[in-house]
Give the backbone structure.
Amino acid sequence: AQTTLDEWAKDPVDPEIRAHVYSLITALGGIGDDGTYSLGDDALLCLKDLRKWLKFGDGQLNRRDVARCMAEANLVKGDLLEILAKISPRAVEDKWRHKLAVATLELLVPLTWPFEIDPVEATVNHHRHGPYIQLAQIGYKRAILQFDRDRTLQTAVKIALPSMAVPLRERTPRDEGIIRIALYFIRNITMLSPPSSAPMDIDEAEVSRSATVDTFQEQDIFQVLLSVASSIGEDFVTQDVIILEILFFLLKGIDAEKLFMEDKKLNSKNANELKDLMQKEKAMLAGYARTAPTRHNRFGTMIWVKRDDEKVTTISGQDVLGKAQASMQKMDQTKKWNKPSRPGKKVDGEQEREEFDLPVALTSTARKHIKTFVEEFLDSSFNPLFLHLRKAIERETERVETRHSRQYFYLVSWFLRAECARQRTMKERAADSKSAAVPTAEDESYGLVAEVMNQETFILLNRFMQKSQDEKAWQDLNAGMKCFTQVLLTVHEMSESALEEDQEIAENIQNRIFYEESTHDRIVMILRSYNGQGFGYLDAVTELSHVFLRILERYAKQNVDLQIRSKKRTRKIKKKQAQTQGAEGEEEGHVSDTEDIQQAQRTVSERKFDFTRFAAKFVNQSSVNTFVAYAKYYAELDTEQLKRVHRFFHRVVFKMELGVLLCRVDILQLFTKMTKGPGSLDKDSAAYKEWDDFVKHFFRQVVKRVQERPELVVEMLFSKIPATMFFLEHGYDREVTVRT
Amino acid sequence: AGGGGDGLGIDEEIIITKKRIPIPKLDDNRLLSDPGIPRLRKISKDRLRFKGKGHEYGDIARMLNMYQLWLDDLYPRAKFADALAMVEKVGHTKRMQMMRKDWIDEGKPRRTTEREEED
C-alpha cells in the first residue's frame, strides 16, 4: 500500500488522550435531520467532561495535548459556536439552556486564553504545541468575529446579564464567576493578535483591530463596556482590571490625535502624507540616479586614489569617476569587517503582545465607531473607572498584577491625548463662524479627566517611574514617561484655556509638579542613562525632556520667585566633623560614626529655583549622546520629531554655548549625512531648512575653533573630559574661586 | 633517568597545535604609536586648510576625509564609523586621558605668551 508522510510522522499527542477527547466531541452533537445543529443527549455532561479534560489533563499534568486535540477537531467552530447559536434566543429564560450556555462559555474562555510559554513551568509539550495552538486561536478569533448565524459576543454578554442585574451585595460567587467569564471572553477576543513568529494562511484583515472594532459596534459590546465602566465602584468592583485590559488591547497603538480630526481634515492630512511619501521616494530615487552608473555593469572602470607616501588605493566602478567624495565613500563601503555588536536582548512573547509603540491603522468605519466610543467613555466612565483603578493599584490589591500599572499609565496618557485633541477640534469648530456650535462651559473645562490630574495620581506616577527606573523595567518606564509627558501637555493647554478657573488649576498643578526637585533630577537622570532600549523608548525619553524643559522654562519665566524643595545630603559636613573629632579621641570618633550613618539620611530644605542652572544640568555629554542616537533615525522621523532634536542641539550650541560637546567626528559625520549627499533629508521638507541653517552655523563655529585651537583635532575623536572642557570652549582656564 | 632514547623523548609524538593569529586590536598602544595620534597631529598641521565663510560644508568634508584616510592607514579593517566608535571608547582609559590632557596643556603656554605679546 501507499504510504503518506502523515503515517511516517509520529502523532505528537498521546493517542489515549486523543481517543477520549474525540469521543466526547463526537457525543456533543452534530448536524441533525433538519440541517441545523442538534444537540447530543448528554451534551451538558459532555461539555463538563471536556472542561475537566482541559483543566486536569492540561492544567495539572502541565501539557497542552488536550488543547491541541480540540483545535484539530474543530471544536470551536464546528460545535461550540453552533451550540451557542442554537440556544441563544431563549438562553436566559430557560434554565437548562442557560446552564448549557454557561458551560459552553466556560470552555471557550480557556481555549481562547492567550497562549504563553511560562519559562519556569513549561514542558517540552508546550513548545511542541505552541505554534499550532497560537494559529488555531487566531482561527477561533476569526470564526467568532465572522460567524454569520449568531452574534456570539452578544450572546456571551446576554448569558451574564441576569447575574449583572443582581445588586452587588446579593450576588453569589457563581454570579460573579459568570460575569467574569463573559468579560474575559471579550478580553481574549480583543487581545488575540497574529503571532509574529508563525506565518498565517488567513487574511489578516479578518482578524485585524478594525474587524474587532466593527464587530464590537455591531454586537453592542461598547455599550456593555460603558455601562460596566461607568458604574464601577457601585455595581462592579473586581471587574475594573478586566475592563482596563480590554481598553488597553483595544486602543494601544491607535493615534488619538487622528481620531478626532474632522473627516475633511483627515482626508487632506492623509493625502498630504501620501504626497510627502511620494515626494520622499522621488527624492530618494533621484539621489540614487545621480550616483548610478551611466553604462552597463561590466564596463569595468578602475581608478586610483593617490594617497600620502606614494601609496595608492584602487577602486572599481564608474560611479566614482570624477567625484572625490563618492570614491571616499566607496572605499569605506567595500570593507568587509563589521564591528561586532552585542546581540539585542530577545523580546519575550508577553512583551511583544504588550508592545504599544507600533502604530495601528484603522478603516474609516472602525475609526468612526471607536471615536464615538471614546467620546462616550470620556463623558461617562473615565473618571469613575480610573479613580477606582488608581485606588486598587495603590492598595496593591490581589487582582492587580504588575502589567496592570503599565497598562494604566499608558491608557491615562492615551485618554489625555484624546481629550486634548477633542477640545482642540471643538474650539476650531466654535471659531468657525459657519457652524452654529457654541461651546458650553462644561465642554471647555477639563473636568472630564480631573481624576487623573490630582496630586494622588502624580505621587503614584512619580513612584512608578522611580521604581521602574530602579528595576530597569524599561517598558514600564516608557509608559510612565508617556503619561507624564501627556500630563504636562494637558496642564499646558489648561493654562491657555479661556476659563479663569482652569488657569488657576493649571497654575496650582504646575506649582506642585515643579516644586519637587526630585522630579527635575529624575527627568535628567532618565535622559542621561539611555542605553539601547529601542526606538519607542528613545522617542518617549526625548519627547519628555523636550516638553518638560519647554514648559518649565516658560513657567520659570512667569514665576520668577519659584521655590523648590530639595533634599540635600548632609553627610559631608558630618564626616568632616567626625574627622576632627576623631583626631581628639578614638571613642568619640566611633560614636560620631554611627551618628554619621544616621545623618546620612537626607534633610529637606527649600531654595530658589534657577532655570539656567537646571538647563545646564540638562546639557552634558550623555544627554547629547542620547539625542545623537535619536538623530540617527533621521530618515524615519517626522517634522515634529526632527524639530525636537533640532531644538535640543540648538540649545546646546547657541544658548548654553557648549558646542564643544558636539565637536566629535561621528557627530559631524552624522550632520553632514543629514544635510548633504545621498540619503540626506528631503530638501523640500519643512525641517530641512532649519537643519541646514543650524548645521551651517555650527560648522562655521567648528572651523573657527579648530583654527584657533589646533589641539581640538585630537580631542575631536573623543568625548570630552570635564576637566578640559572649559578650556576647549573658551581658550582659557576657569578661574577657580576659592570659597572662604 | 630511563634507558637510552626514551629519555630524549624522540619517540614521543609531537602535537602541533595551530595557534590562531590574534586579531590586531585598535587599543591605546596602537593609538599612541607613531601612525596613531602623533601622525594625526602632524598631518593636521600640514594639511588642514580651511576656506572659511561660505564653504562650511566643504571645509568639514575635507576634515572628515582627513580623519577617514588616517584611520584607514592606522586600522584598515574597520569601517570609518566603526573605527570612530572604537577610538572613542579607548579614549576613556586612564592612560589616554592623561595623554589628552598633556596634549592640551602643550598648547596652553604658547597661547598665553602670544596673548602677552598682543598686549
Summary: The first helix of chain A runs from residue 5 to 8. Chain A touches chain B through 45 residues (CB under 8 Å). Chain A has 34 helices and six strands. Strands of chain A lie at 29-31, 37-39, 302-306, 312-316, 563-568, 603-608.
